[in-house]
Amino acid sequence: MIRSFLLRLFFALLLTCSIALPAISQEAIKLHNDETLSNFGKQMLLLTDTSNKLNLKAVISSEEFKAVDSDVPNLGISNFSYWLKFKVQNNTNDPHLILQIPLPTIDYVDFYQLDDQNNVVYKEFIGDRRPYYKRTFDNPFSTFKFSLDPGKTTTIYLKISGYEQLQVPTTLCESNIITAKNADSFLIFGIFAGVLVVMFTYNLFLYISTKDNTYLYYIINILFIGLLQANFQGFPFKYLWPNNVWISFHAVYILTPLAALTGLEFMKKFLHTKEFLPKLHKFSRVFYLLYFIAFILMFLGNMNVSYQLLQMAAMSVALFMLLNAVLVYGKGYRPAKFFLIAWSMFLFGLCIFVLKDYNILPYNTITYNMMPFGSALEVILLSFALADKINIFKKEKEDSQAEALRISLENEQLILQQNIELEKKVNERTLELQESYQTLEVTLSDLKEAQSQLVDSEKMAGLGQLTAGIAHEINNPINFVTSNIKPLELDILDMDSVIMMYEKLDFNEDLNPQLAKIDSFKKQIDIDFVRDEIKSLLSGISEGAKRTAEIIKSLKNFSRLDENDTKPVDLNEGLASTLVLVKNTFPDHLEVIKDFGDIPKVECLPGKINQVFMNLISNAIHAIKMKGAKDEPGILTIRSWQDGNQVKISIKDTGTGMPEEVRQKIFEPFFTTKDVGEGTGLGLSIVFRIIENHHGNIDVVTKVNQGTEFIITLPIN
After folding, report:
1. Structural domain of residue 345, as residue ranges?
2. In the predicted model, what is the mean pLDDT of residues 412-429?
3. Is residue 71 domain-shared with residue 134, that is, in the same domain?
């Protein structure tokens, strides 16, 4: 009986104890003087609020808290809210303690301090989705200052929520040492920021000096990398947009694609993937699509999926860039070596950072700062790569110059040998043929002038064209005058016969028969027609004479090729004269539009400028002939106008036009698109030199099958 009672009593007590005791016992975190406790997650309890509706009262009474199995609680990526519970015992002499979560990117952090009766003693709400100015403590981290008398114990509740990777590193210390504690973290990032600023400035200087777009992509990439890393440290929220919660919350979703894609474009430019890896170069567009999808998901409010997609895309871009570097280096491109090493450093840092996020590696100062460290090494090494690229280009230039010098020396040696051989032959010939010495001397002189004759061949061609034009233009009025002389002689003979008949009238006889005879003769020769024909023939002869005079005047204006002195010249007059002299080369149905403006005279060498007009107009006519369009007439438009202290001449045709690769070479000596024997390739080169010597410039606007326009600009002296 007694035994049965004792057994019942034992089980009752056991049941009572099981009900009264909590599921998990929790010891207080004890803080001593001058001590800093970091990452004490294993001394915390965790409650996951899947409904996001639990209030503090419900949380306090909940028995669903579980022990945290890591020093830094890793809550992952979810839409849930998380409650952390722990106790703090103040064994210091300072009644003011600091609890800090040195992870600035947490969206919401709610702090509650409770007394022994579970009454709220102090509360504060922080996070990057709350205005910065509401913080009690002025630093980028979630920092809470609470009061606790020495020797006392308090209970702390933290409510954590956000759409990104949630890790909760913690620091507990006295209020007077938190500044020194944070200074170490800020110093690490300050070194990283200093490296970025130096590299940004250095490469900006190189871009300004070289105008190489590779440096432009790189400095933009450095800028976005710096902003992204600074955002992970919370500095932009503090200094750039402290009151803009939207930017603070979305900064990582915006800066990550910008940093990744500018890095991708820099990689393609630096490694020349378009030439070395054309298929992978096109495949890179996939990453733009991935980031665009992540961006759309962000705006749709699906932040968790967007963040996971950003992480996946960032890792994919990093591996893709590494693959490109390996393949390009395998093709023997030396700068890819530095890029490969640099990007390996960044990828290593990124992998450490991501593995830390997924709790594969522990959260500590090294793993947290490994990505900024890797980024800094990447920036430094890529700067070395760019510098090495400059050295390569410099060496290639030096090798090219050395090769050019070698070829020049070989050519000089060859010329010297040829001159020696030629002199030997001349001497032998002189000895053998003394009687032909004078002829031989003339021949040698001609050989020495061969080079200068080549340069002047274009001028001679222009003179030949001029001569042909003059001959044709003068021949027309001369033929017209010649053809009119014979009929005019006959008409004059007829009129002379009539006059002689009148002179032979015999007034002593009957005049009527005589006058009737004269009238009959006048009807026979059709005196009215003869009279009109004489007027017409005389008019034609006069017109031919005027035309000849006009041609001679145009010739006089144009034929100043050998004048060496500058003088004020009416450029409109030169254009008109040139058109007259090349008129014989006009194709059928050519429309010439002359729009000569009121321009002042320009100080120049008139012959040289006329040579320019002749060459450009002749080329325009040739281009129109080459197009040979029957359905539409060719149009040659010549304009002149004053633009400030300059005079501009436009010669525009509707001919064949030029592709870009031809346009870039047209002013090079000996370059021609004409058939063999039709051009020397010196015309436009001489034109360019003449305009340049007049301190002007010449521009070309052209499009294939639509025509070409040359615009000459000359200063008004």
Report:
1. 186-398
2. 64
3. yes
